[in-house]
Design a protein that fits this description.
The chain is of the alpha/beta class. Helices cover 46% and strands 13% of the residues. The chain binds adenosine-5'-diphosphate and zinc ion (ZN). Zinc ion binds next to helix 16 and helix 17.
Length: 595
C-alpha cells in the first residue's frame, strides 16, 4: 500500500486530510526536507505516520520525552502500525527485540531520543537499515530562541547529513519567526520547505474575567462544564488547596506539582489521562503539568492566575480540545498578578532584558482588558491578520459595554499623589468619598483638595479602575498595598490618555456548544462509552486510544449493525475494526433489541 489517501482511509479510517497535512505529506513522499509548523490538534503525527507506511524502510522519529514516545507508540499500535522505541528505559530484552524487528524491516516507526540518535553507535546502526524518513518532533527544541531548548537537538545534524537523501520532517506547534529560521538552518531544511498552518484553534472558546473569589468562580464553571479539564494555578500550595476545594460533587479534582511525591504525581496523571466521561477528572496543576500530555479530550483549561506570556497562555490553553471537539479556555486575572510580575521584573530580571519582559506583560494586559475579540489579539500577536471578530470568544459572543472611566482614574491618581503615594485602595476610597475615618482624620487627609471629590458613580468604579491602572502600570502597589505611580500615570493625569473600562455582561447561561457535544446521558452513547472503558482497561490504555468521542458519537447516531457498516465510521481503521469492532457491534445490537 503506497497511496497516502488509501492509507489514511484504510489504516486510520479517516475520510480526508485536514489543513496542511496533504501538502506536508506530498513533500515527504517526494523526498523533500520540510518544516511543518502546525498548531496542537492539527494532526502532526499523521504527517509522518502515513509516509512511514507508504515509503519503504523504517521512519526514524526523534522525540524529546520517553513519555511522549510511549503515548505515540501506543496510539500508532492501536491503528496497527508497527512502532517501537529505543530508550534508556528499555531493558536488555526489549532492546534486543526492537533491534531484531528493525533489522528484519518489520518496523514502520522507530522512536529515539536525540541524545541517542546523535551517538556514533546509533550512526553505525543507521548505516545498516534503510530509513524511509527522519521526523524531528518538537523541533523548536533545536533552537535557543525556542522555549524548550535541548542542546542534544543541536547534535543531530551530522546524522541527518550522513543521509542526505532521506527526507527530513521537522514538526512543531510553536515557533516564532526567529525560531523557525533557526530550525531551518540547524536541521538543513531549505527555506521553501517551510509549511505554516496558522495558529488558530477554532474549536477553543476563550473567556477572560477579573478574579473575584476564584474557588467560587471555578465551582460555577465546573458545574456547567462537563469532561476532563486542567486548572492552572501559580503555586504548589494553591494547587493542593484548590484541588481540595473543587473536589466532591461527583467531580474528582487532583493536584499536580513538582512538590508531590513522584508516585503520587504519576498516579494522579494516570487517573486524569483515563478520565473519559462527563464527570471527568480536573487536574489542578502548576505549569509543571503539560508537556508530554497529549490527552485529546481535555474539554477545558482554566487559569486561576495570569500566565507568564501570551506564548505560554497559547500553549497552555492549547492543551484543550486536541480532538477538534468544542473546548473552553478560561482566564481569571487579578491586579496583583500584574503588580507581582512587574515587581519581579524590576527586582530580578537583568536590566537589558527588562524592556522585553515589560512588553510581554503589556501584551497580556491588552489581552485581558480588551473589549474586542480575544482570538484576534492572540493571532495578531503571532503575526497573523485575523478578522475583527471570531464569533467564538466571550467578547464576540456577548459584546461587553465599555465606559469612559478617565475622570474616576484621574481622581484616584490625584488621591494617591496627594496622600504621598503610600496608601492602599480602601483608604484612598475613603478620602475620595469624604469619609471621616480615624485614619483619614489622623493623617489630616480631610483637609486635602481631593477629599470627597468623587460622586457615587465614580466611587463604584474605584476598584475596577485601580485594577485597570495596575494592569497597565499606571499604579504600582507595594508589599503592603500602598499605591504609587508607574510610568503610565502621568499621561492619564495630564489628560493625554483615556481609561476605558470593560463591563462584563451579567452572568448569562453559557450557550452550550450544540452540534458536536457528546449526547451525555443518551443510553446508547453511554453504553458505547462503557464498552470503550472496558476494552481500554483490559488493554491497559486510556480510553481515547481505543476510539475518540467523535467516533462513539457517530456510532450512536448511525447505529451500524454490522462490521462492514462500522468500518465506515470515521476513526475506525482496519486494525481497530478487527480488534474492537465486534464488541461495539454487539453493544449496538443489544441496544436495538432492547429498544
Ligand atoms: P498534534 O500532534 O498536531 O497535536 P495529533 O497528531 O495528536 O495532533 O492529532 C490530533 C487528533 O486528530 C488525533 O486524534 C488524530 O487521530 C486526529 N486526526 C489527525 N488527522 C486527522 C484527519 N485527517 N481526519 C480526522 N482526524 C484526524
Ligand atoms: Zn472573538
Amino acid at each position: 500500500m503506497s497511496d497516502p489517501l488509501q492509507i489514511l482511509r484504510e489504516t486510520f479510517g479517516f475520510a480526508a486530510f485536514r489543513g496542511v497535512q496533504e501538502q506536508v505529506i506530498d513533500r515527504v513522499m517526494a523526498g523533500k526536507h520540510t518544516l511543518a509548523v502546525m498548531p496542537t490538534g492539527a494532526g502532526k503525527s499523521l504527517c509522518y505516520q502515513v509516509p512511514a507506511i507508504a515509503r519503504p524502510g523504517t521512519a526514524l522519529v526523534i522525540s524529546p520525552l520517553i513519555a511522549l514516545m510511549h503515548d505515540q507508540i501506543r496510539s500508532a499500535s492501536a491503528f496497527g502500525i508497527q512502532a517501537a522505541s529505543l530508550t534508556s528505559a528499555d531493558d536488555e530484552a526489549d532492546r534486543r527485540e526492537t533491534l531484531a524487528r528493525l533489522q528484519r524491516g518489520d518496523l514502520d516507526l522507530l522512536y529515539v531520543a536525540p541524545e541517542r540518535a546523535s551517538t556514533g553507535g546509533f550512526r553505525a546502526l543507521a548505516e545498516r537499515v534503510p530509513f524511509s524518513l527522519i521526523a524531528i518532533d518538537e523541533a523548536h527544541c533545536v533552537s535557543e530562541w525556542g522555549h524548550d531548548f535541548r542542546p542534544d537537538y543541536r547534535m543531530l545534524k551530522p546524522l541527518l547529513d550522513a543521509f542526505p537523501d532521506v527526507p527530513r520532517l521537522a514538526l512543531t506547534a510553536t515557533a516564532d519567526r526567529q525560531t523557525r529560521a533557526d530550525i531551518l538552518v540547524q536541521l538543513g531544511i531549505p527555506e521553501d520547505g517551510l509549511i505554516l498552518a496558522g495558529f488558530d484553534r477554532p474549536n477553543i472558546r476563550y473567556h477572560v474575567r477579573p478574579r473575584d473569589g476564584v474557588p467560587q468562580q471555578l465551582k460555577a464553571l465546573l458545574a456547567e462544564q462537563p469532561g476532563p479539564g486542567i486548572v492552572y494555578v501559580p503555586s504548589r500550595d494553591k494547587a493542593d488547596k484548590l484541588a481540595e476545594q473543587l473536589g466532591g460533587n461527583g467531580r474528582r479534582a487532583l493536584p499536580y506539582h513538582a512538590g508531590l511525591d513522584a508516585r503520587v504525581r504519576a498516579a494522579n496523571q494516570k487517573i486524569f489521562v483515563a478520565a473519559d466521561g462527563a464527570e471527568g477528572t480536573v487536574m489542578v496543576a502548576t505549569i509543571a503539568f503539560g508537556m508530554g500530555i497529549d490527552k485529546p479530550d481535555v474539554r477545558f483549561v482554566a487559569h486561576a492566575g495570569l500566565p507568564k506570556s501570551i506564548e505560554a497562555y497559547y500553549q497552555e490553553t492549547g492543551r484543550a480540545g486536541r480532538d477538534g471537539d468544542p473546548a473552553e479556555a478560561w482566564l481569571f486575572w487579578g491586579a496583583n498578578d500584574f503588580s507581582r510580575a512587574r515587581r519581579r521584573i524590576e527586582a530580578e530580571v537583568p536590566e537589558d532584558r527588562r524592556p522585553g519582559e515589560r512588553q510581554r506583560l503589556n501584551a497580556l494586559a491588552a489581552l485581558v482588558e480588551t473589549a474586542s475579540c480575544r482570538r484576534a489579539i492572540l493571532l495578531r500577536h503571532f503575526g497573523e491578520t485575523p478578522p475583527e471578530s471570531c464569533g467564538n470568544c466571550d467578547n464576540c459572543l456577548a459584546p461587553p459595554a465599555t465606559i469612559d472611566a478617565t475622570e474616576a482614574a484621574r481622581k484616584l491618581l490625584s488621591a494617591a499623589f496627594r496622600t504621598e503615594m503610600r496608601f492602599g485602595i480602601q483608604h484612598l476610597t475613603d478620602v475620595l468619598a469624604g469619609r471621616e475615618t480615624d485614619k483619614v482624620l489622623g493623617f489630616g487627609h480631610h483637609r486635602l483638595s481631593v477629599f470627597g471629590v468623587a460622586n457615587e458613580e465614580e466611587l463604584a468604579l474605584v476598584k475596577p479602575v485601580a485594577r485597570a491602572l495596575i494592569a497597565r502600570d499606571a499604579l504600582r502597589p507595594d508589599d503592603y498595598g500602598g499605591l504609587s505611580f508607574g510610568p503610565g500615570a502621568r499621561p492619564i493625569l495630564r489628560g493625554e490618555e483615556k481609561v476605558e473600562l470593560v463591563v462584563p455582561p451579567k452572568r448569562q447561561r453559557r450557550a452550550r456548544a450544540g452540534r458536536e457535544a457528546n449526547p451525555e446521558g443518551d443510553p446508547l452513547f453511554e453504553a458505547l462509552r462503557a464498552c470503550r472503558r472496558d476494552l481500554a482497561k483490559e488493554a491497559g490504555m486510556p480510553p481515547y486510544v481505543v476510539f475518540h468521542d467523535s467516533t462513539l458519537r457517530e456510532m450512536a447516531a448511525l447505529k451500524p449493525a454490522s462490521l462492514t457498516a462500522l468500518g465506515r465510521v470515521s476513526g475506525v481503521g482496519a486494525a481497530k475494526l478487527e480488534r474492537y469492532g465486534p464488541a461495539f457491534v454487539e453493544v449496538i445490537r443489544a441496544h436495538d433489541e432492547a429498544a
